[in-house]
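From the methods appendix. Each design record in this collection lists the tokenized structure first, followed by the designed amino acid sequence. Records were kept in a plain field format so they could be parsed without special tools. The example shown here is representative of the layout used throughout.

RECORD:
FOLD TOKENS (221 positions):
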């Protein structure tokens, strides 16, 4: 955990100084939400019911950018080799980098929540379910992103390969998180407990897989 905290702090300090997340990822996510709104039309009776799904599609696409940025930082000046030879536990590296991506996603989701409330007229209700599903869904996305980001990193086609690997595997998170948000926004968050459990299982599964397999993936690249 000490190694995880060190790596997470390092990645977050880089992002705070570079402001890539603020200047690129957040505007990209807001643009996605805005474009969905333009495509569906100005009628909020149509937009509000679709707000949960559009929210999570925007988060899913933004995760790809965030993960690519996380590995791009390590590719400069042989920093990846330095990280590999630093003696840090690979499991700690995985958890730290996933934790940094998780923190960025949670900040992004707060901004996007305000965006769908303003643009789509979505009434944010069931805050406990919204927050719980956002945290569990983001953990799952961050873990999957780090795992497949490690698979794609070091390859010339990594920019196009990562979405192809990541998006199909992350589909269960999109489905379960959207169901949780739909039920919470409809005022029946208690009906979403099964979907919330699915998010928890997915998060635990991929955090475990990533913790175990990140070391060999790091060595191979």
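DESIGN:
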């Amino acid at each position: 955990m000490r190694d995880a905290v060190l790596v997470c702090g390092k990645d977050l300090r880089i992002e705070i100084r570079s402001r890539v997340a603020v200047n690129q990822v957040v505007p990209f996510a807001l643009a996605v939400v805005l474009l969905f709104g333009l495509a569906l039309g100005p009628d909020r009776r149509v937009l509000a019911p679709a707000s949960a799904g559009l929210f999570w599609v925007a988060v899913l696409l933004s995760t790809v950018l965030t993960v690519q940025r996380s590995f791009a930082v390590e590719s400069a000046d042989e920093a990846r080799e330095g990280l590999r030879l630093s003696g840090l536990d690979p499991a700690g590296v995985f958890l730290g980098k996933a934790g940094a991506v998780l923190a960025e996603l949670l900040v992004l989701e707060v901004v996007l929540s305000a965006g769908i409330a303003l643009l789509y007229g979505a009434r944010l209700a069931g805050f406990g379910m919204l927050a719980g599903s956002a945290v569990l869904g983001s953990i799952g996305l961050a873990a999957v992103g780090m795992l497949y980001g490690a698979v794609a990193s070091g390859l010339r086609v990594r920019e196009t390969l990562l979405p192809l690997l990541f998006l199909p595997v992350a589909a269960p998170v999109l489905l379960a998180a959207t169901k949780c948000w739909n039920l919470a926004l409809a005022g029946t968050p208690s009906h979403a407990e099964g979907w919330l459990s699915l998010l928890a299982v997915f998060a635990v599964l991929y955090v475990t897989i990533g913790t175990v397999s990140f070391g060999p993936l790091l060595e191979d690249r």
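APPENDIX NOTE: The chain has a mean pLDDT of 86.
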